[in-house]
Design a protein that fits this description.
Length: about 450
């Protein structure tokens, strides 16, 4: 295969070769092919690309966790008014939360964007406009987008991987979601910088483990004979040994040696080589590179310093892991979709509390004015968030500085038709009323 590629390249121009290198580098799994195309394998000898990295369970878990969490957060559209900000639901809301284009859901689009940022450094979504309105948002594969800088502006050269058509897209029509280390054109990829060697070691450990168990989870052996053996006898002995005693199916079979042959271990076992401990360290190191706490991708032997309970872990995960991604997404959406202060988009972070009834209940209690503090949400606003109809008197904010009579009170419910009316009790007379009555009688 390698010679075929070299021969094919020899008849191509430098520009065409460079184009093919960029398009095919990430889809190769042969270390020699990657070296020929301009890439470099890791120190373990295994190539680390966006495709090979996702075969490592720790990388897959980190990307899935980050992408899934951000895809689950609704994106709301607001505008400023005389009474404050007001949530609006134009056609843009549908593109951001339900269907950006005919063959994509919004959740799949956001997962694709975050996956592109994690594995390739940048995510790209083309804005499809019709006159002044936005009709669709088309996710693009980062490998088929070339960024060129002209002055202070960017132009994107997009290649259609099905038809091979090449077209230019102005930066105003391209949502370029950059990752960490953006230099004005491209960002730093996690798998090519922070986790490059760790992923290579993890791939090597996976391959070694697979071969170890494929050979019956047994160490390598050396067979010795008291008599001299020619090359044919040696080859025959090797074939018979591999046929009868190697492989998972033959792992439990007893070993029988004749003609004075003896056998002994030649290499260390997986336990002696501390293979499992090495693989645990790679999980922690990869999680560190992606900014994800190890205990959230299944590394249960690690502990969290963010406190106990789902709420505290969620708060730490949102602050230190999700917030940098969300900030970049929000700023790029606002500057490309609106290009002014209002309207604007914002992520509803309280959606991450869904499923934790205790934390959600505490949040709502504080929002209404719990602990004798001022409320920042009304009853009807919270009911709207839970898809419940408004109630009478539910549009007033709680203020502890006002008298109790001025606070919002729940409406009085009329008596049930089957329930007879209760007789009114006469007012209770006080001592002051009795003295006044005695004075009047005199």
């Amino acid at each position: 295969m390698l010679n075929t590629i070299k021969k094919w390249f020899s008849g191509k121009g430098s520009g065409e070769v460079a184009s093919i290198q960029n398009a095919t580098l990430v889809r190769s799994s042969d270390p020699q092919v990657i070296e020929l195309l301009g890439g470099a394998p890791s120190a373990s000898g295994f190539p680390v690309t966006a495709d090979t990295a996702m075969r490592v369970s720790a990388v897959y878990a980190c990307v899935r966790l980050l992408a899934g969490a951000i895809a689950a957060i609704p994106v709301s559209v607001y505008k400023e008014s005389n009474t404050g900000r007001e949530e609006i639901e134009p056609a843009l809301w549908w593109l951001l939360n339900e269907q950006p284009i005919e063959n994509w859901t919004a959740a799949s689009m956001w997962e694709w964007v975050i996956k592109s940022i994690c594995l390739r450094g940048d995510g790209f979504v083309e804005i499809v406009r019709s006159m002044a309105s936005i009709k669709a948002m088309r996710p693009l594969h980062p490998d088929y987008v070339e960024v060129r800088k002209i002055g202070d502006a960017l132009v994107y050269i997009v290649t259609d991987y099905q038809t091979g058509e090449v077209r230019a897209v102005h930066q105003d029509d391209m949502l370029h979601f950059a990752g960490f280390g953006f230099n004005g054109m491209r960002s730093m990829s996690v798998i090519q910088w922070a986790a490059f060697q760790s992923i290579g070691v993890a791939l090597a450990a996976d391959a070694y483990s697979g071969k170890f168990f494929a050979n019956g989870a047994a160490p390598k052996h050396i067979i010795t004979s008291p008599n001299k053996m020619d090359e044919g006898q040696i080859d025959q002995l090797k074939k018979e040994y591999e046929k009868k005693y190697s492989g998972v199916d033959n792992a439990a079979k007893p070993m029988v040696l004749t003609q004075g042959l003896t056998i002994k271990e030649m290499s260390m076992t997986a336990g002696d080589a501390q293979l499992l401990e090495s693989r645990k360290f790679q999980v922690i190191d990869i999680a560190r590179a992606f900014g994800v706490p190890p205990h959230m991708i299944g590394a249960q032997e690690t502990t969290s310093s963010w406190g106990s309970g789902v709420e505290q872990m969620t708060i730490g995960f949102v602050k230190f892991s999700l917030q940098p991604y969300i900030t970049r997404l929000r700023q790029e959406l606002n500057r490309k979709l609106f290009r002014r202060a209002s309207p604007f988009v914002e992520h509803k972070m309280e959606a991450l509390l869904a499923g934790d009834s205790k934390a959600e209940g505490e949040y709502m209690r504080q929002a209404l004015g719990g602990s004798q503090g001022p409320g920042w949400m009304t009853v009807n606003e919270l009911r709207k968030a839970k898809n419940l109809p408004p109630i009478t008197g539910g549009d007033v904010l709680y203020d502890p500085t006002k008298q109790q009579s001025q606070q919002p009170r729940p409406p009085e419910q009329p008596p049930h038709p089957d329930q007879p009316p209760q007789p009114q009790q006469p007012p209770r007379r006080t001592e002051h009323d009795e003295k006044a009555r005695s004075t009047d009688s005199q």
